[in-house]
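Much of our argument rests on the idea that a fold can be written as discrete symbols. Part of our work consisted of pairing the sequence of a single chain with a tokenised description of its backbone. No coordinates are needed to read the tokens, only the vocabulary itself. The record that follows shows the chain in one-letter code together with its fold in token form.
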Amino acid sequence: MERERRRRKKVSRAGVDYSLLVVVVFLLGFGLVMLYSSSYYSASLKFNDAAWYLKKQIVATALGIVAMIFFTFFDYRWFKKFTWIIFIGSLLSVFLVLTPLGIEANGARRWVDLKVISIQPAEIVKIAVILCMAAILSYNVKKVNGLISILMVYTLALIPAGMIFLITDNFSSALIVAAIGAIMLIVACKNNKGFIALIIILMAIAVVGLLLLGGFRATRIMVWLNPEQYSSKGGFQVLQGLYAIGSGGLFGKGLGQSVQKLGFVPEAQNDMIFTIICEELGLFGGIAVLLLFAFLIWRFMVIANNATDLYGSLVAVGVMAHIAVQVILNVAVVTNTIPNTGVTLPFISYGGTSVVFLLSEMGIVLSVARRTVKAREV
């Protein structure tokens, strides 16, 4: 009887995933330090305030932390009930850039001015696609086996991705949305070979189309292939970023000692911030940051595997795909592994809308983790 009593299991909630939470908080703190280090020179010149970018990011980070705390204690399963409202609302938000509320910055009309705050609809679409595809797949995952059914579900990612590209001319965000949908389908569906073949064909068509259409995107491909030859036509940023990475050596020049951020690397606080990290903290610092992201992604996988329902598991997979794709694209761009697509480094690059929605996603994943049940002996 005593042995049977000891073998009995009691179900309890797993609680907050502190491993995930600590890494997120550390990345936020590190990001603010590197943001100030990489931006104080340009902020002083543009705004006569060395901490201008830092102040804006601190406000956005504070809002994001509030959102993360809220969603951590919010039952993520409620999103499933409002899937189509969230999805359609995100598509409508993209159209807002065409209205008088749309604002243009750095030659692109991708933001919406809500007076109190400006948002980038592409960030809303990313989280909406994650929630929508997770809901649809959790309802119909056994039916999504053939290529036709896979393609039909994939339109939930392709339609918003196409809207982002055509309306806001934001190829990088469109690519991320399409990639999130693809990864979620590959994880959820059994017939992966046909789907992977379809993705390869679509990517080949996209590359050939960009070359045939010409324009600045075709130029970016030429810059990628030979940045030295096109140093005056887009290769300057790439070359300066590579100089920054190379000059950092193993342990870097020291925090705040970057030379390339002094007007050589354009917008160092945005897409190219990883090059400043490598210059100031060296190869050691760059690898440490990548290891932190790798640990973050691993925690997403653990939460997805232990989730009590398929919906929660797929939500965690979708967020994992978002972070993984964005980190890979950013590092690949700054090292000239792929053509420049203008992708920010999560939690570290400057961007208010990005950090708010990223932290909201972290809150949703933490909510999945909190509602994971575990058995323990009593």
